[in-house]
Amino acid sequence: MGGTFTKGVALGLNGEILAISHVPTTHADQQGVAAGVLDALEQLLTRLPAGTTVLLVSHSTTQATNALLEGDTAHIGVLALGESRDEGRIRKVTNAPDGLNAEWTFVGTDRPDFEVQVQAVLERWRHAGVAAVAVSEAFGVDGGEHERQAGELSRALGLPATLGSELSGSYGLEMRTVSAAINASILPTMLNTARHVRQAVGARLPGVPLLIMRGDGGAASLQAFEETPLHTVVSGPAASLGGAILREGLMDGVFFEVGGTSTNVGAIKDGRPVLKYMTVLGAPTGLRAADIRIAGVAGGSLIRLGRRRIEEVGPRSAHIAGLGYASFADPDLLKDARLVEITLPGSRVGGYAVLEVPSGARYAITPTCAANALGAIGENGRAFGNEQSARTALRLLGERLGASMEAAATAVLEASAEKLVTLVRELAREHGLQGLPLYGGGGAASVLGPVIARRLGVPFQAVPNADVISSIGAALAVIRVERERTVTRQDPTIADLLEREVGDEAVRLGADPASLRVETEYLPQEGRLRAVAVGAHPLSAQTRVLDEDELSSQARLVLGDSARLALGGQYHSLFTAEHELRGLFRRRTQRPALVLDQCGVRLLRFENAVVLVGKPGEVLPGLAPYLGGQTAPHVAVLTSTRLRDYAHLHDRQTLTQHLHDSLRLESRVALIVRQE
Questions:
Q1: Are 645 and 572 in contact (CB under 8 A)?
Q2: 349-363 burial, b if ≥16 CB within 10 A, otherwise e?
Q3: Which of 230, 322, 377, 537 is the most buried (most CB within 10 A)?
């Protein structure tokens, strides 16, 4: 669901496209944007072949993002908990972010009448119009029984509640409180949306599971969306990244999606979206999502003029202004058109260039019109319009600027690209992706993509089905659960418990246990241990599983022609290679290692590694020669069903013991030891 259009796609079990739908996003409808979602779903159902059975519905939404951007947030209460002696310190770090309408109260957890006090606060808030509650307890991640008790009391009174420890398992009371407060502020709106969607989908497709995309590229059940809607911020752009990765197998590069109102730019590295901690309402949260940069320029952006030049393209768009594109109008309608400059409702500045015809109807001049005027969009492109109409619009714009039609069209595209070139360049530099291809999605990808790529000096490629790549990503979505814990020392028991926790939660949210992959990562500078579980919904439309020859071909693309299969598991394959590097005075051998999943997605890559394959009792003694340093090397293990990363274990003895305990029941394993 975008700012201009809501799009849908129906995929078969092998990933083939069965139907596509496009409807205008219903900002003004009584049901809000949910009405457009249901319209798109209805179109899909009517276009499916007769007798088709729908097994799963997956949805990516910008509702949470829009609610925060537009200030559509609820009156909330922040309930801070802790020992009474710490009230002053807790008060300083449990305030809601600026911009939220919030009440605040502290209740001591050591009070004998704790439950009575909490009940009284909640009753007072309910009568004062509070619509949702954020509960945050000092050291709540270590137990949180009082936090859970307060949450249950709140829900019993009909007040939706968010617990800080549910959103983050890391120490940092302020960060957990901010996350809980923001989540609570959008809970009522999201619960209303979820109710509409559940009722409509349930009536049309009774019993069919419904998944909601998250901002980290994973998906979760509608129940999870109702509990933590903050996870869905930037889920639309994240779905596009997921579609590009899962459908097209993109591994490294910058991906941008050009819609009608805005353009989203994200990064893909090692076949995964690059994530970062979200900052919402100017406050850092404990939740990670795709690192998305958003620019207010797109295929439907309006052009604002100065005296003799283009002042700006965007952020106002034709759709929001209620104007049709000139390039999609019948040429006969534009015969006697004239260019006028208008001030849009709610805008303080004027100078927006539009065409006005004798009947009084107006048409926008947009970057899509400019690209059509130059013949830069192929007939099969979603943004392809009427070239004659587009040339009429750009000729009139050129006359206003004292330039030719071609020069005016080029100036529109260059001014549009200017906003995006800096974003793309910064993102590529931050994540080490300079010089790699630029990939485009969205209906207007072919409008701005070639211009941006030319200015950056990189190749450009529009992905197939670019206009519905976000919908494809939602359909192919996997269940993803992430948890973090603050750790002060290395403890494999904590890692095991955290792995089990995220794995169990992923299964609870609908992941197929057979497809589950759990990885842990230790962040020593931050003192955090992170575990991520990823698994497919058993009914999801899967990307095609590759055979052994195709997997080998994928490995050769990454490792070179010397790539060979070292160990093939049920869900993963390990490939190694050998390269001879010539230096000024000597030669050395580099042995890269690569793990791919069954669809060819890159899960792990070491530029230089020692790989030991065999029974656990055979390979574990072989690790000893690589344990001579002050800290243990980075070790990953591949078994017949699972890939485990032990980067969080730095103590040599702890690593050895943990490997022995966790691998003793395996029949055949591969130890992958990273070499510097």
A1: no
A2: eebbbbbeeeeeebb
A3: 230
Q: Are residues 455 and 498 in the same domain?
A: no
Best CA proximity match to 533, nearest among 563, 511, 556: 511
- Report the relative pairing of strands 643-645 and 635-638 from DSSP bridges: antiparallel
pLDDT digits (tens, 9 = 90+) for 543-581: 567 888 889 988 888 888 999 999 987 778 999 999 887
List, for residues 174-207, the tens digit of each pLDDT value. 989 999 999 899 888 888 878 877 887 888 888 8
* Token output for 400: 């206003």
Residue 203 lies in a domain: yes
The H-or-E segment that residue 643 falls in is strand 643-645
- Tell me, letter by letter, the H, E, C secondary structure of 451-480: HHHHHHCCCEEECCCHHHHHHHHHHCCEEE
CA–CA separation, 391 and 386 (whole Å) = 9
541 falls within a domain = no
113, 136: one domain: yes
* CA 20/CA 355 separation, integer angstroms: 32
**Pairing relation of β-strands 579-582 and 564-568?**
unpaired
Q: Are residues 397 and 523 in the same domain?
A: no
Count Cβ atoms below 10 Å from residue 507 Cβ, excluding itself.
Answer: 16
Map residue 117 onto helix, strand or coil.
Answer: helix
Pair of tokens at residue 275: 């994530």
Pair 468, 584 in one domain: no
| Residues 148, 245 within the same domain | no
For the entire predicted model, the pTM comes to: 0.71
Q: Is 79 strand, coil or helix?
A: strand
Q: Which run of H or E residues covers position 409?
A: helix 405-430
Q: What is the pLDDT of residue 504?
A: 83
Q: What is d(CA 488, CA 447) in angstroms, rounded to the nearest whole number?
A: 51
For residues 15 and 87, state if they share a domain: no
Residue 556 lies inside a defined structural domain of this protein? yes
Cβ neighbors of 299 (< 8 A, separation 6 or more) are: 258, 259, 260, 366, 367, 368, 383, 442, 443, 444, 447, 448
Per the structure block, which two tokens stand in for 189? 């709106």
Cis previous bond, 315, omega within 30: yes
265: containing domain: 238-476
pLDDT band at 389 (very low <50, low <70, confident <90, very high): very high
Do 450 and 483 reside in the same domain of the chain? no
- One domain, residues 147 and 288: no
Count of domains for the chain: 5
Strands 263-269 and 253-258: antiparallel
